[in-house]
Design goal:
87 residues; mainly alpha; 91% helix
């Protein structure tokens, strides 16, 4: 696999993850009371705990996107750039 193919995959995966995160955040902002009502029945959560799980999940998801997609993408681009530039 060429590095250009890999960078293309990583770049697209990162932005698809950002779109998924935006969808999650928007869904949470619009439907928070209904989502809480359904989850409170299943798991017996307080509203505060539900909010913590939602924000914590979004934070962990974003950190995962940064670590597994954006960081390798930037590292590969950096190596490609350093190979092209004369020393």
């Amino acid at each position: 696999m060429k590095t250009s193919d890999l960078t293309s995959i990583l770049f697209r995966a990162f932005w698809l993850g950002i779109l998924l995160l935006a969808f999650w955040a928007n869904t949470y902002l619009v439907w928070d009371v209904r989502l809480y009502a359904s989850h409170a029945k299943w798991f017996g959560l307080s509203y505060h705990e539900f909010q913590l799980f939602q924000y914590g999940g979004m934070m962990l998801f974003m950190i995962g996107l940064l670590i597994f997609f954006l960081s390798p993408y930037l590292a590969i681009k950096w190596v490609e750039y350093s190979k092209k530039s004369p020393r």
